[in-house]
Amino acid sequence: MSKNHKKIGRREFLGNSTKLAFASSALAMLNKTNEVKADPNDVKAASAKKLKVALIGTGHRGTSTWGKDMVQPYSEYVEMVGLCDINPKRLEAAKRLIGTDAPSYLAKDFDCMIKETKPDAVIITTPDCFHSDYAIRAMELGCDAIVEKPLATEAEQCQQLLDAEIKTGKKIIVTFNARHGNSAEEAKKILTSGELGRIISAEYQEYLDIDHGASYFRRWHGKIRFSGSLLVHKASHHFDQMNWWLDAEPEEVNAFGKVAFYGKNNSFRSKNCRGCPFADKCDFYWDITQKQRMMDLYVACEDADGYLRDGCVWDNDIDTYDTMTVEVKYNNGVLLSYSLNAYMPYEGQRIAFNGQKGRLDIRNYGRQPWDVEQVADFRVTYSFKDTKTWTVQRGKGAHGGSDVKLKDLILKPNQPDQLSQLAGSRAGVMSSLIGIAARKSIETGKRIKITDLVKFPLEWRW
Prior knowledge:
This protein has helices at residues 10-16, 26-30, 43-48, 60-71, 88-98, 110-117, 131-140, 155-168, 182-193, 212-218, 224-227, 235-246, 292-297, 302-305, 402-411, 425-444, and strands at 51-56, 78-85, 104-106, 121-124, 144-147, 172-174, 199-209, 250-258, 323-330, 335-344, 348-355, 358-365, 376-382, 387-392, 448-449. By secondary structure, the chain is α/β, with parallel strands linked by helices. The longest helix is centred in the C-terminal third of the chain and has 20 residues, at 425-444.
């Protein structure tokens, strides 16, 4: 790490980061042409104020949320100018699925795409381990970076991202859609109201069911070298939520984890589900051919790069933990107890905050073998007083409406951000570092201090 980075005190860090806020719109931040008021009838001016974006990574997330679901509904604000992927066949499939005639480039020609298409920002939806590489290179070439979570999978990548942001003067936005769910917003409002008094401790239990949970182990996510483990890939959502809810900085992490269900924990296995000789007796057999989108994006393209989207969940090389617990100590004194299990009979979360004046209990529902109309149950129980309960309904659209709210905030001009939901480098780095520290704690058997992983800049650039 660079010797030029001074070690920053906790108070100074908080003063320079958590109390700062984004501009009223990320689009205004990313595209300065938005500041020019143009005649709405002037076609040339209208085109000039659009945010020009290029997409690297044309898998499911890239072609849906940041592809078709962005290009069409946000055409007034955004122009897709380039697509990039390692797989040439997937690139062509992505163009059809998105409905764009933007030029396509192989990953080796990323620099060429930037130079020829001149995007304002690059949207990065590659496998996690490559997020930092493309974000850094995009900034070096004069673009801002809009990055899917996690921002990074290694501490060294976090340092390099922070250094590049300062050196280039460009910006990073991390697309934490979990901040935008109705339940997450409700929790933030309660916590910022002071209704519970000072928060002393928090609990977060994540349940991934045998459908969603297993899906990670069929894909590249099951290998730590690609995903950083679910502590980084999946839990970065949860750690970011907790950092945001508490408006606090994690200091120290202790964790335990193991591959207790998938991987080697079975008597038989195959390369992938198609053609598997054990299909009739495997509860986790998944027929990818029943989903045309998966066929178009993956099966029809696998001969170009060898990636099998329906990999075996019993693969002996799986090393991503499916069972894990994490303890986090925050600089404001809050102690967090976190757990994630990826083979549950139902999906959802139990979250709680223990304060001086009472306790907030949240039960978030995903999939379960019983019917619920609401997305979450809330209960506040006051010390020496009564309790009250209420429900929160699911929003409309992907991920309970959170994807739309996230894109509105990033892409539409003059959007208010009253709950400070836009996430920049600080949020991305901090959420990644908790997962990275947890993984290191599991590997070493030691507690890990966040400040031992990265030298934070004296000023965060938003």
